[in-house]
Structures are given as structure tokens and as C-alpha cells.
Amino acid sequence: MGRILVVEDDLSLNRLISRSLDIEGHLVKSVKTKAEAIKELENSPYDLVLLDLMLPDGNGMDIIEKVVKDASVIVISAHADVTVAVKAVQLGAFNFVPKPFELENLIIEVNRAIESRTLKLENISLKLPTKIIGESQSIRKLRDIIEVIASRDVPVLITGESGTGKELVARSIWELSARAKNDFVAVNCGAIPADLFESELFGYERGAFTGANVAKPGKFELANNGVIFLDEIGELPKNVQVKLLRVLENSTFERLGGVNPIHVNVRVISATNRSLEDEVKNGNFRDDLYYRINVVKIEVPPLRDRVEDISVLIDYFSKFYSKQMQTDYKKFSPKAIEFLKSYPFPGNVRELQNIVRSALIFAKGNEVEVDDLSLQVQDVERNYVKLQIGESLESAEKRFIEATLEYFDGNKTQAAKVLNIGLSTLHNKINQWKENKSGEDQSS
Question: How do strand 48-52 and strand 72-77 relate by DSSP bridges?
């Protein structure tokens, strides 16, 4: 929902639009003249301006230039012709809606404009800049690959453990491509309930289900002419996989409850921390979809495989968070850096990022020392599993998995991700050990 200014001199139409948008949950203010609009925009921030061009005290076209940097604009006017529409869009208007119009269609455009602006703001104010930090050979190679494929408008599949920066890679591809002037729409497939996938990705029409009082565009519509990033794509249900395959093949889909095909021009970048090859073999992921999304494959290395980048990342995060939190910049002592270089980082770069931020808050001196690091990191030495000569591989594997489970307080999902095995595989191993122990107890 957003803050909307309605600029319309027709009093009855103004009231109708304002009341309808208010019912939708938006915060609405209405004015009737150009002067009132300019004064209101100077005094209050808005997400969207619904602007009638022909106002009693002048043409509203120059208002577009004043506000497009701070708000989206939808132009509404009875004087609709191609020249006016093109000029309004060239000045930065989101869209042009000619009078007379269906109120429902106007609300759809309003919702699209609000969501598009929200996405733009998210892309501008990221938690961290879209910059891949590091000078290791693997990171230099990763940057080279990104530069090559950014201009090739093909689907990309990014693989790697959780926390390695797969979304950062996707955003880097988008920023270096011709699509950077349009939206980057990120979708976490692992966070969407199974029964909401279709409506989230492809939108829905009014009346498609109980509570669908107005039509809503999906993520693919919002990403039109830009990039859609499907994180954890392995979580997609089979019925949604079929629809996604159709989008990749024909660039068309229908909204939930709709019959009219919608055409989009979207580059799809996917990511997973699973082995999709195994998911295909197990029948959980369509092989034809896998081949479609896997035109170019990029693997992001875990942090433990590029230890030489840790000191560079520490310095980068220290400077970034010192500036963000408006605190004095603190270097990490040599001992603290060496200690972190010996840490396995199951959470990868994301974990290092959080460790640095936390240490900057709690460090008492001018430097960050080992004692300033989180307790979980300080306890790392107790979590090493040493191999024993003569021990069977099965026994060593069992001790390693048990130590990993202990480290994550019994959380099997986290343990499976760090071990880079499926959750079902982990359950099978645990059950097998229980059966073996039960058999030993009965035989003794």
C-alpha cells in the first residue's frame, strides 16, 4: 500500500477515485488544481501521483518532471492521443490512462505502479552494494564470467551453499546488462506457501478466489523488460514448474482465474543450494525445465575455499558498517583475523558479515580482538572432528555428522545444508544408525 496524491478537477471523479483507492488500503490525498498539487508535493512525500493533465490553472505536464525522481506518476486525461502519451512516458510517467476508463483497470495500474516503485527502492537501498569482494583466483574468475554473460540475454543458473552470495551474483549480472534500467524482481521460492506459488508468480484476476476483490499482477509482470531472480528454485511445486516452462518457451502466461494470455520479456536467473541433477533423477524437478534454466551455470565458491579473501572482506565490512552505524572504524587485530581464517564458516560470507557487524558493536578498544567475536565462533575449536588412522570411513562420517548436528543444536535442516546433502539423506543415515544400534543391543 502507498501514499497517493490524486490531482483531478472533476470533483465527482476525484471523489470516486479517492474513495476506491482508500478502500484498497492506500493513504489518499486529493486536490483539484495545479497550484494545490505543487504545494502538496513540496510539503509531503508521495509514492504515486494520479495526474489529470488538463487542470483549471494550467497543463499538468511540467509536474511530471518535478516529481518523477521522488514518486511514480500515472497520467489520466480525456485529451488522449499518441503524442501526449509518448511525451508523458518520455518525461518519466509510469503509464498513461485515457478517459473514460474502467475503475478496476485504473486500480490495477495503481497497484502495478506502487509495487514497481517498491522494487526500485529495494534495489537502490540494498543492505550492501552489489559488489563482489575478493582477490582469490576463484573470485576473479567469477567476476570474469559475470562480465561475459551479462550481455548475453540467456537464462542463468547459480549454484552454491547458503550464504555464498548467489543473489549478489544475480544482481551483478543485472547491473551490467542492458536490462539494468528496468526492475530486478527477487523471489524466494522457499518462503512461498505451496498454494500461493501460482498467484505470486503470475498474479490473479478479480474473483479468482475468496478475497480477490481486485486483480493483481504477479512477479513476472512486475519484472517485464527486466530480470526475475528465482532463489531456491528447487522448491517449486510440479504444477508451477509446468507454467514456468511455458513462460520460458513462449514468454506468455495467464493470471490465476484469467483466460487472456499475457506476454512478457523477462530474463530468468535462478539459484539453488541443492543438486538439481539429483532432484531430476528423483522425479522432484522436471528435466525439461532444468535444461531451460541451465543454459549458463555459475558456481559460487564457499568461503572456506577462498580463505585469502577473508581479510579483504573483513576490512570491507568493517568500513561499510562503521559508516552505516556512524561509529569509529575499527580494524581487526592480526590474531582476530588469523582466528577467523581458521573458522570453517558454515554460513559463508553472510555469517562473516554478521560476525563483523556484531564485533564492531561490542569491541571495547580501538581494535577488534578475538574476545570480541561471537561466542559461537570462539567455540569453533571444540567443534573440530579429527580423523583417526585405522578408523572406518563409515565411522568417521558418523562422528562428523553428529558433530555438525551438535553444532547446530540438532537442527537437521541447517546441518544438511552445511554438509551439502539432502535432508532426506540425513534422515536416512540417522535412522540407519539407530537400526544398527538397536540390532547390536538385541544381539548382546
Answer: parallel
